[in-house]
Structures are given as C-alpha cells and as structure tokens.
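Many introductory courses stop at the sequence. We go one step further.
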Amino acid sequence: MTVLVTGATGHTGRHVVSGLLDAGVDVRVLVRDAAKAPAGVEVVQGDIADLTEAAEGVDAVYLLWPSFDSEGIEKALKPLEGKKVVYLSAMSAEHGGVWGDVEKAVQRITDDWTFLRVTGLATNTLGWADQAATGVVRGPYGQARRSLVHERDVADMAVKAITGDHAKQIYLVTGPEALTEAEQVKLIGDATGKSTVWEEQPVAEAKTQLGQQMGVEFATTALGYWASLVTEPEPVSLDVARVTGHPARPFEDWAREHFS
C-alpha cells in the first residue's frame, strides 16, 4: 500500500506520516519545499492544485485542502478518482462552506471516502503565544466553549481510516471536554508557569483584525459561530476513542507539550 500525504509538514500531516510509517505503509508526500520533507518517505515537490504526479500509483490519500475557498477543487481532485481519500474536514461542513464543498467534490470522484470533521484544532491557540508571554490574551467571546482536539488524535484517526475499512464514514473529532477560551488561556499560563488571563476584545476590533487575515466574509462567519458557543458549547464526541482505542487527549496535556 502506498499513501500520499498532503500537508505533510503541517500540524496533523507530520503525525500522519509517522503513524503510517510505524504501520509499515509506504508514504509519498507532496511538499512545496523538498528540504522540509520528513525522512523515510518518497518526496514529490509541487502544489495541491496539481496532484497528477503525486497521485500516480498511490492507493490512498490524506487530504488537507489549505484554502479558505474551494476554487479549483474539481481539477485538483481529478487525479484521485477511484482512490481512498481521508479528508481533514470541519464540523461546519454539514452547513456547507468550503469544507462542505470539498466533501461533495470528494464524493464525486470516489466511493471510498472518510471525513474527519474536527470542531477545532488545539494548535490554533498557538496564535496566542506572543500575547500569552505578556500574561494577557485579548480576544472576543472568552466564554465561548470549544472542544478543541489534539493534532495527534486527528492523525491517529487518519491512520486508522487509511489502513482499515472506514468507507463512507463521517467522524466528529473533538477533545474530551468543552473549555471556554478563558479556561484555555489559563491552562496555557499554567504550562508556561506564568499567570495568564483573558481580556475581552471588542467584536468590531476583532472583526477588523480577522478580516485582514482571512477576508471579511470568513471573519464574519467565524465571529458569529464563536458568539453562538457562549450559550451552545461545541459538542464532545467519543469517535476518537471508538476508532483509535484510546481516549482523546485533554487540552491541558496539549498545552504542556507546546508551551512548557
């Protein structure tokens, strides 16, 4: 079995690679910079917009779509026709958006698909690192409760899906509990040994900042979603335990691994 891993140098992809290698699977990676490719794999240098060379002869693909829109997805996925595809998606895919668009595109080119719908990756909180070093993290909706998942749990799910029979399965991939953003910041502070607190940021200010980074439409959607989590926390799923055989890793462990 040969597996193509996209996003192989990223937060989840590098753990997918190591998990597949441990399972005795031949791994091919698609990277923009060959110098950053992990050891022990076949390397194809290129971009996900053209998978023709990277997909030739592989049996399965770990797919990470890096864009905030789905433009070009049909052309990009054409070389994956008929192959097993495990796609790192998001819980919001059920409502459409880029993740929903990519899921539909995958379903059009293969019947052997698995969607890993995450509520959110714990690694996203690395964006608070500079602020955390000052002892204060500013952001909107500090009481929004999120069930962020450890990237290694996502990778463990992906390896199981690639090496086993999980065709046409949709898994909700979450952490073991839903914590407020303020609680997450406190745990990051505990990991660094420095008291760190949350400071509420005006929504208009946050929208301007996010809009510059991700576009106004995406920022508006994200802020609306976070606002909803104040009264309706993200769900907590047992799919990690069901598929991998081990419980989801808590955010506290993730914070110690990345901030201590």
